[in-house]
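Lab notes, practical 5.
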Amino acid sequence: DETVEIQTLATDGAGDLLVTGSMTGEVRVIPVDGSPIRLLEGFNSQVLSATITTDGRFVAGAGGQFVPEEAVIRIWDLAGEEETRVLDARDGLFIRDLQFTPDGNLVSSGPGGVRLWNVADGSSQLVREGVVWGHAIRPDGGAILSSAGVAPAEVQIYDLASGAATSLPEHGPQVYTLAFDATGQRAVSVDFSGVVRVAPTAGGAAHHLVGPPSALWDVATDAAGRWIAAAGASGEIRLWLMPDGATPPMSLSTEEFLSMLRGTTNLRVGPDPATPTGYRLDVTPTGGWAGSGDE
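Output from the prediction step:
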């Protein structure tokens, strides 16, 4: 079989189907049980984003980066493998990111901003103007996170019920893309310097999760709320445990930070004039070991 570069990857809610979009316009539905792959036709050039509904019924793909005439969203019904609708903002701007909402509508983002689509009638609402790198939909569908595609890359949360847009400066000026945690109460972002930030969507200090200093392009959280996965320029997928609700260490005073450290280790440094450095390292019992009878 001919090798085709994959540009985007999505899965249904049960994890039974994978959907891919390619450089050459193919949208493929791949059953994980090895059943035959289904090819969805309509695009003739690069498909930057593809998505599938949680129930695995509908697939949507978006293109247009190099061919403005293909800057549309195509929707297929897998029950009949037919294209059921084409959504067009009529601005000729390609769509970089595309996701179904829990109620079966769509959110798209790219150089034309963030747009909420009504799949039934084809209408749309522009909820954020300007170039946008990426977006995320809150698990309950009630809010959209997005990051601006030009510096400073401001992170913003848009509440669909009230129409209010709120900036989240805790994520810094270099955010590439982002995600919600499982509760929908925290935003997770990745940036060009390789830092992952986790902060409450209601505002507040961010936890900084730091790895090798290389750009991160994508981030995901698991449904159980335990893990963060990020990938980028290094070609690696990095995993972090989701921070708990405690105050981020960077926000603590010096005394608070030292107190926190003392509670997480049984190592203590003390003065000792008899040593070359003038200090010694002591290993002391911890609360969990005291009285256990272990050596």
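Observations recorded by the TA: Residues 288-295 have pLDDT under 50 and may be disordered. The first helix runs from residue 254 to 262.
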